[in-house]
Amino acid sequence: MKLEAGMAAIVTGGASGLGQASATALADQGLKVAIFDINEEEGEKHAAAIGGTFHHVNIMDEQSVVDGFAAARSANGQERVTVHCAMASKRGKTIGWDKESGAYKRLSTEDYAFGAEGILVSSYRIASHSALGMANSDPVNDDGERGAITLTASVAAQDGQIGQVIYGSCKSGVNGLVLPMARDLMQLGIRVNSVMPGIFATPLMLGMKDRNPQMWDQLNASVPFPKRLGNPEEFASLILEIARNSYINGHQFRLDGAIRMPPR
């Protein structure tokens, strides 16, 4: 799909990290980018920097998402590229030791359900609402293509570590959405893919550089090559290629410097 000036895109989690880099890369191609995020200050700031629009959207709230799509389309037109980076989750072992009670405790079903909503359900919510808008629009090329949706999974989908039972299984579920959804949408010319980033230098990880430099060095050394954390711009580069290359469909990409995560 040719990325043309004036084409609309939506990036969730676009106020920081991988989403911010993706929003910048798409804007650099001339696209009108709508950022969905709950961080109003950073979201507004980055939207202004790239000539885009900001929309306060809670991906865990159906009406918030519906309103966000309506506002973005009113401002920029029907999106042809959607990149979903936002998420919410919790962490914990299935069974862990509780120091306060001096006994084992179970990760609650409520905590698991929160992560499932913030990762898996929200991915379906964003992708399906975007697909509905694309389905009701005209094709953009001779292939009959109407748009491309890229979801963000994680290497934890395949290499889930201790304490990642929520995150790992739900990110695996994001990968599980890709092929059946791509097949559901094939007659409509809408592509669906996912990216599994490894350890990237997002603001959350960069905070470790000062707090725990030894751990920071260990993380960099753990990547086979190049021996560093990924740059968000490298994630964004793959996002652009997935959007541009119409033959990429129903696929899950690891982007990880060949790292394979150990149990802990």
Quote the distance from N terminus to C terminus.
40 Å
DSSP E strands, number: 9
Our count of helices gives: 9
Within CATH, the superfamily carries the name NAD(P)-binding Rossmann-like Domain
CATH level 1 class label = Alpha Beta
Which regions are unreliable across 5 or more consecutive residues at pLDDT < 50? none
Overall spatial form: globular
Oligomeric composition of the shown chains: single chain
Cα-based radius of gyration, to the nearest Å: 19 Å
Number of folding domains? 1
CATH topology tier name: Rossmann fold
Fraction in beta strands: 15-25%
SSE pattern: EHEHEHEEEHEHHEHHHE
In short:
The chain is 46% helix and 18% strand. The protein is built from nine helices and nine strands. GO terms for molecular function: oxidoreductase activity.
Jot down its keywords.
Rossmann fold; alpha/beta; 7-stranded parallel sheet; 264 residues; NAD(P)-bd_dom_sf; Sc_DH/Rdtase_CS; single chain
Structural write-up:
With 264 residues, this protein is an alpha/beta fold. Helices cover 46% and strands 18% of the residues. The protein has a seven-stranded parallel beta sheet with strand order 3-2-1-4-7-8-9, with helices on both faces. A two-stranded antiparallel ribbon has the order 5-6. The mean pLDDT is 97.
Which helices and strands appear, and what pairs or packs with what?
Elements: E1 8-12, H1 17-28, E2 32-37, H2 40-50, E3 53-56, H3 62-76, E4 79-84, E5 95-98, E6 103-106, H4 109-135, E7 147-152, H5 156-159, H6 165-184, E8 190-197, H7 203-211, H8 213-222, H9 232-244, E9 252-255
Parallel strand pairs: 1-2, 1-4, 2-3, 4-7, 7-8, 8-9
Antiparallel strand pairs: 5-6
Helix pairs in contact: 1-9, 3-4, 4-6, 7-8
Pfam family, one: adh_short_C2
Organism: Pontixanthobacter rizhaonensis
Keywords: Oxidoreductase
